C-alpha cells in the first residue's frame, strides 16, 4: 500500500468513528451504561459537586443538601449540582417535586436537568437543558455556554416539529425536521398562550400536581435524546451536540427536591 492510499484509509476510518466529547477536565465519558448506576446514594452528595454564580464551587449557605433521603436544592441564587463524572449512552431516571420557596416573581417555579455538560463551569455551561418549569416540563433548551478560550461553545440539536395555533413549534414525531436557531423546543402539548403564572398548569400537562413527585426520563442514545414525563414521551431530538457530558440538577430560584437519580442501560 502506497503512502497516499494509507493516508486515505486512515482518514476514512477516522471519519467513520463518532467523536466522543470529553468533559471540561478532559475526562472520557463513562458509557455505554450496562448496569444500573445510583448517581445519588440517598445519604450524602458523594459523586456530585456544586457550582453557584455567587460563590463558584463553595456553598456557604448549604444551597445543596440531603434531607430525609432526598436532594434538597434551596433555590437561593443560581447554580447547579453536577455529577463528578461525565456519561454517555444511558437511560437517566429521576423524580422531583417542588418545595415551599419561590423566587417571589409570581411566575412558575423553575428548575431543570442539564445533560451533556462540557466546557468550564459557568451560569450557564454548554449543555442541553430538560426544562422542569411548571407547564413546560420536557421543553428542550440548547445552552452554548463558553469554551476554555471564552468563545461560544458548540451546542445544537434537530427536532421534528409542527406549528401550533400560536405559530410556535411543538415536538411531533411526524413533523418537519427543525434545526436549532436560537429558540427552545417546546414539548408536544405545551399549551398555546400559557402565561406561566405561579402554580398554574397547562391544559394537557402530564407532570404531577404541586407537591407530588414527577418522574423524568432522558434516553441518551448516541446523538439522540428522548424525554419522558411520567411515562409519556413529550420530546425528542437528534443530531445532538454535545452527545455526552456531566448531568446537572439546576438551582434557579425555586426550592426543589430530587430522589432516585439513576442511570439504567438503554432498552
Q: CATH H-level name... which superfamily?
A: Exo-inulinase, domain 1
Structural class: mainly beta
- Mean of all residue-level pLDDT scores: 92
Number of helices, where a helix is a run of at least 4 consecutive DSSP H or I residues: 1
Low-confidence stretches: 5-20
Total strand segments:
17
Q: How many domains in all?
A: 1
User: Can you tell me the CATH topology?
Assistant: Jelly Rolls
Please state the CA-atom Rg, rounded to the nearest Å.
19 Å
Outline = globular
Largest sheet: 11 strands, antiparallel
What does this protein structure show overall?
With 267 residues, the chain is mainly beta. It has one domain (21-264): Exo-inulinase, domain 1 (Jelly Rolls, Sandwich). 5% of the residues lie in helices and 38% in strands. The protein is built from one helix and 17 strands. It has one helix at residues 3-16, and strands spanning 37-38, 48-52, 64-67, 70-73, 78-83, 90-98, 112-118, 126-131, 140-143, 156-163, 169-171, 176-179, 214-221, 224-229, 232-241, 246-252, 256-264. The strands form two sheets. Strands 1, 3, 4, 6, 10, 11, 12, 13, 14, 15 and 17 form an eleven-stranded antiparallel sheet that branches. It has a six-stranded antiparallel sheet with strand order 2-5-16-7-8-9, with no helix packed on it. A hairpin with a 2-residue loop joins strand 14 and strand 15 (232-241).
Using brief descriptors, characterize the structure shown:
267 residues; mainly beta; Jelly Rolls; 11-stranded antiparallel sheet; globular
Fold blueprint:
Blueprint: H1 3-16, E1 37-38, E2 48-52, E3 64-67, E4 70-73, E5 78-83, E6 90-98, E7 112-118, E8 126-131, E9 140-143, E10 156-163, E11 169-171, E12 176-179, E13 214-221, E14 224-229, E15 232-241, E16 246-252, E17 256-264
Antiparallel strand pairs: 1-17, 2-5, 3-4, 4-17, 5-16, 6-13, 6-17, 7-8, 7-16, 8-9, 10-11, 10-12, 10-15, 13-14, 14-15
Amino acid at each position: 500500500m502506497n503512502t497516499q492510499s494509507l493516508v486515505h484509509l486512515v482518514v476514512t476510518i477516522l471519519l467513520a468513528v463518532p467523536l466522543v466529547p470529553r468533559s471540561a477536565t478532559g475526562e472520557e465519558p463513562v458509557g455505554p451504561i450496562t448496569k444500573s448506576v445510583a448517581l445519588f446514594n440517598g445519604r450524602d452528595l458523594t459523586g456530585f459537586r456544586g457550582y453557584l454564580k455567587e460563590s463558584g464551587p463553595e456553598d456557604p449557605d448549604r444551597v445543596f443538601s440531603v434531607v430525609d433521603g432526598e436532594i434538597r436544592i434551596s433555590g437561593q441564587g443560581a447554580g447547579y449540582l453536577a455529577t463528578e463524572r461525565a456519561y454517555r449512552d444511558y437511560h437517566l431516571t429521576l423524580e422531583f417535586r417542588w418545595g415551599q420557596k419561590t423566587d417571589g416573581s409570581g411566575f412558575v417555579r423553575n428548575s431543570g436537568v442539564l445533560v451533556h455538560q462540557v466546557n468550564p463551569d459557568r451560569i450557564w455551561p454548554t449543555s442541553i437543558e430538560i426544562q422542569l418549569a411548571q407547564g413546560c416540563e420536557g421543553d428542550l433548551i440548547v445552552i452554548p455556554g463558553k469554551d476554555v478560550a471564552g468563545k461560544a461553545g458548540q451546542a445544537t440539536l434537530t427536532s421534528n416539529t409542527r406549528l401550533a395555533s400560536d405559530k410556535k413549534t411543538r415536538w411531533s414525531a411526524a413533523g418537519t425536521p427543525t434545526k436549532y436557531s436560537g429558540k427552545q423546543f417546546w414539548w408536544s402539548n405545551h399549551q398555546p398562550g400559557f402565561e406561566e403564572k405561579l402554580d398554574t398548569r397547562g391544559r394537557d400537562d402530564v407532570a404531577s400536581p404541586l407537591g407530588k413527585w414527577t418522574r423524568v426520563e432522558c434516553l441518551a442514545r448516541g446523538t439522540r435524546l428522548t424525554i419522558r414525563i411520567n411515562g409519556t414521551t413529550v420530546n425528542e431530538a437528534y443530531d445532538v451536540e454535545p452527545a455526552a457530558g456531566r448531568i446537572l440538577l439546576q438551582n434557579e430560584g425555586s426550592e426543589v427536591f430530587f430522589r432516585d437519580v439513576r442511570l439504567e442501560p438503554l432498552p
